[in-house]
Design a protein that fits this description.
Elements lengths: L2 E5 L2 E6 L1 E5 L6 E5 L16 E3 L5 E3 L7 E4 L2 E4 L1
Length: 77
Amino acid sequence: MAKNIIIRGVEYENIPYIRIPQADGSGMAKFVDTSEDTVTPGTLLSGYTAHGADGEPITGTKTTITAELLNGVLTIE
């Protein structure tokens, strides 16, 4: 999910994320483009968190994992 970006008038192509220093000097902050992510609470296991396409946090609600063998193909959900 790389994007082309412009910083101080200079264009950079295919940038997957940006790391910048934190104001308090405690390290680097990493900003990632999540605009194409498809995670939903129902696809994420309960107790885990992620960020949706809008950048907002999502908490998982899925409580089980199921597996099915069909025609030699194992599908795990």
